Amino acid sequence: MKRILITGAAGAIGSTLRAGLRGQYPLLRLSDARGMESAATGEELNTADLGDYAAVKTAMSGIDCAVHLGGIPKEAPWPSILEANIIGTYNLFEAARECGVKRVIFASSNHVVGFHRSSRSIGIDVEPRPDSRYGVSKVYGEALGRLYADKHGISVACLRIGSFRERPVDARQLATWISPRDMVQLVRCCIDAADYRYLLLYGVSNNTRARWKNPHAARVAYAPQDNAEDYAAEIAGRTATGAAAEFHGGDFCNLELTNKINNIE
Prior knowledge:
The protein is α/β, with parallel strands linked by helices. The protein is 31% helix and 17% strand. It has a single domain, classed as 3-Layer(aba) Sandwich (Rossmann fold), CATH 3.40.50.720. The chain has helices at 12-21, 53-60, 78-99, 133-152, 173-176, 180-192, 243-246; strands spanning 3-7, 27-32, 43-47, 65-68, 103-109, 155-161, 163-164, 177-178, 198-203. Helix 3 runs parallel beside helix 4.
């Protein structure tokens, strides 16, 4: 994998990956609908709206591996989710197929399983239980990745990213945090790993309180270095309430909630 595309490269994770992967591959193509800083040696800048298939295909041309971060990164009204996360993700995979891209790394989210009870440790084999329209769009992306892996032979890794921050900020993130350093390592491991067809991984650091089982981490040699427990003392007392305290999805589960918590299995 020598020619790498990052979509959503102007975002928080995209900017971190840009810095962390710079100089590691002969070509790092950075794509976003927004403007970015001038290109460094080995970088190319590309402006593309994910809803514009022709623009996405141009961004994908000549690429070996696409890291797809682009889209709406939080809950939003359905029309916005539809355009950026549903249509945009389809455009990404279809352009990858047409351009002969070997591998796609899809930024999924822990919110695909947000309505599982947080008292239960879960793995990659649990049923999807999205906690939001955003979570639904990530379930769709994982399913689309599975389709393109099986039907078209593209190597696909779906990363159920936890809480990406410089440092954890509340009690939930003592379990769900992923540090910038570990985020870069995870993506690089997925880019560089020997051939795989389809993998699901949780994007999480080496947290003492982790509650997600991550068997495919070993498959790509992902060995996270950071631990949210190092910050436990400074965020003591910052606990969640309501559905946020009961389910893996945290605050996303409280958004627009009209059901009673006890009615959710």
